[in-house]
Amino acid sequence: MTNDDRPWLVADTEQRAEAILRRPRRLRRTRALRDLVRETRLDVADLVLPLFVTHEAGAREVPSMPGVFQWPVDEVAAVAARAAQAGLRAVLLFGIPAARDAAGSAAELEDGVVQRALRAIRERVPGLVLVADTCLCGYTDHGHCGIIDASGALDNDATLAVLRRVAVSQAAAGADIVAPSGMIDGMVGAMRAALDESGFTDTAILSYSTKYASAFYGPFRDAVRSAPAFADRRTHQMDPANAREALRENALDVAEGADLLMVKPALAYLDIVRQTREQFPELPLVAYNVSGEYAMVKAAAAAGWLDERTTVLELLTGMKRAGADLVITYHAQDVAEWLGQGG
Ligand code: PBG
User: Fold this and answer.
1) Which residue has the CA at smallest separation from atom 14 of ligand 1?
2) 216 C-alpha to center of ligand 1: Å?
3) pTM for the structure as a whole
């Protein structure tokens, strides 16, 4: 920027320069003024509520995520109805299946937990947007996100074959959006082809396009008991140190047909949110405010160290300001209720 672009900086208008540049507090004086000049607004339509659905009877609170429950299939529709009542537009479903095996086969069952939950919610709250997480880690007995080969490594292409079937079964059960979260190369293209071949051309794909190998998933792995039994996820999830690689992942997923992109986790990766927004301004961008980020706020609030409401609103507003259109957050129900009361 040159001084020609900023005429108020030239010497002969110095007094105006002071007036404009040195008194930004003028616009912060009252609540109404602050509202008037606010650049980023958090709206209930920006939030997606994740829900854990279990085959077991009775709701169970996740110890490391106070306020978050594993819901039995026959209760989850009521929970979704309460979300819709508060103004939320979308829920994201994760399943805790009755049985796990090496191939994660419970993920593709017509009467699997997520498939049953999708049908139940669709019937009770027809207008709600239903998103299904498409990954195998909650369904495999070893806790990995796909098929493990004889050497103990994740077999990329064998996993794609399973993900194709899971996506189709979720679409058949009523998912509006399927969300592959395993960082398996080619997952978006494989799922798009499978959906199209089965006639589900209107089912959208939200790709977890940039997903880092993060310590912040710890509480989630408690919630679905999906911690890997051996090794870790660093051969498929991204190295937290890398940003340029995120742009490559995004470009591949867009080329394969992703309808929405995601950055996950959100808090330590707001620079990636911003860069993704600039790389693909035309696509909706989702930030995932993950389980560990939720747990940190809840723990500090419970100890009386942070004010929960203002902290959560500040965090989510920051994610939007960085460039996210939508935020997946376990705080969604609370925030929807707070926003309904005027923020
Ligand atoms: C499954 C998956 C994970 C999360 C969403 N989908 C966990 C993981 O990769 O281990 C994490 C969500 C959260 O921490 O809130 N691949």
Assistant:
1) 217
2) 9
3) 0.93
